TrEMBL record:
It is an enzyme of class 1 (oxidoreductase). This is Uricase. Signal peptide: none annotated. The lineage of its organism: Eukaryota, Metazoa, Chordata, Craniata, Vertebrata. It is found in: Peroxisome.
Amino acid sequence: MLSLRRYHYQVLNCEYGKNTIKFLRLHREGKKHFVKEVEVCTHLRLTSAQEYLEGNNSLVIPTDTIKNIVLVLAKKNGIPTLEQFAIDICKHFMTTFCQVAYVKTYVQEVPWQRLHEVSKILIHSICLCWTHIVSYFWITGPLVVFAGIKDLKLMKTTQSGFEGFYKNEHTTLPERHDRILCGELFCKWSYGECKDFDFDCIWYTNKICECILEAFAGPPDCGEYSPSYQKTVNSIQMLVLSKVQVIEVILNNTFYNVVDMKNLGLTNDKEVSKCSKYNLPGLFRNTQPKSIAAVLHRAELK
């Protein structure tokens, strides 16, 4: 006898949107020009999932329309900050379309900078580049704002080691008191509920990016010793937490091993380095990157 089971299906999430809306917004103030090159991803959740369940598209806002709205908002409002631009996008969809229940917007920027002289040189730390500054926003009840940085490539050629770690019969990693510390950083922080923040003030006055570099490198003249990647992540978080409430840091670290050149009659004292990932000349082998991740929250003491 065949037994038939009955199931009840519940839609837990059904959203759609337009990804990779890439454009450049040029703003002119006399002879001075300002550029914002951004990539926007906007996703919507509708009050009904009828397009998903029944194929009824009457409430669906086409993704081409989403793209056009983003471009029109950039034209009309400009992009004063990434945060404000994403808020403008979210508010437009929430206030214009009654069938929209939820908006999630992701904005990332190519950080073009004017050419200028470097006023201060750190003797042992290098900031290679950062590819994007990113911001996350969504509306579900109150407006919650996140922002951050990704692909920030950092290196310090000394003042880093890894010693005193747990060892057993499977341990082959040697202790190091002086090594190259290199990584690619992703950092995301929360502003909490949006209540008329001055995002430019937070970014430029609080100098969050400068805080990250300071925590990583230490003082310009002498640096600061890092006993591990984990402690470096914590140092970054503790300094930035004086400016924001919650911060997540992921450091994709890259290990460098000195090549033994004794059989070539040479002593390699780390004068020349090689990183296969970036195709730089030198004498170090680049192993697979590892990730160090941590989330830290600042709470008021009662």
